[in-house]
From TrEMBL:
Residues 3-108 form the Formiminotransferase N-terminal subdomain domain. It holds the Pfam family FTCD_N. GO terms for molecular function: folic acid binding; transferase activity. This is Formiminotransferase N-terminal subdomain domain-containing protein. InterPro entries: Formiminotransferase_N, Formiminotransferase_N_sf, FormiminoTrfase_cat_dom_sf, FTCD.
Length: 108
C-alpha cells in the first residue's frame, strides 16, 4: 500500500491571486498533487491542500513555507483572523498507510 500524507497549510494571504498562485505552485513538485486552494478575502487567508508520499509532502511544505515568507509582508497584513506569520499552521494529516506519529515526526 502506498503511503499518503495530506498537508493543509494556512497562509496569511487571501486577496492577491498572484501571490496565492506562486505560493501554492511552490508545492507542485513530482510526487505531490495540489488538491485545493481556498482563499478567504475577509480573513485574508488561504487554505492550501496537497498530498503525496510523506517525504515528498514534507519537502513540498518546506518549499511552500519559504515562498510564503518571501512574498507575504506581515507588517502590511490586514484581516479579520488573528495571525502568527506568513504561514500560521502547516498540519500533516495521515491519509493512507501513515500514522499520526509518522506525521508528528514529519512536522518536527
Amino acid at each position: 500500500m502506498k503511503k499518503i500524507v495530506l498537508c493543509v497549510p494556512n497562509i496569511s494571504e487571501g486577496r492577491d491571486w498572484g501571490k496565492i498562485n506562486q505560493i501554492a505552485s511552490a508545492a507542485e513538485i513530482p510526487g505531490c498533487k495540489l488538491l485545493d486552494v481556498a482563499p478567504d478575502v475577509d480573513h485574508n487567508r488561504t487554505v492550501i491542500t496537497f498530498a503525496g508520499g510523506p517525504r515528498v509532502v514534507q519537502f513540498a511544505a518546506l518549499k511552500l513555507i519559504i515562498k510564503a515568507a518571501e512574498l507575504i509582508d506581515m507588517s502590511k497584513h490586514k484581516g479579520e483572523h488573528p495571525r502568527m506569520g506568513a504561514v500560521d499552521v502547516c498540519p500533516f494529516v495521515p491519509f493512507r498507510g501513515v500514522s499520526m506519529e509518522d506525521c508528528v515526526k514529519l512536522a518536527r
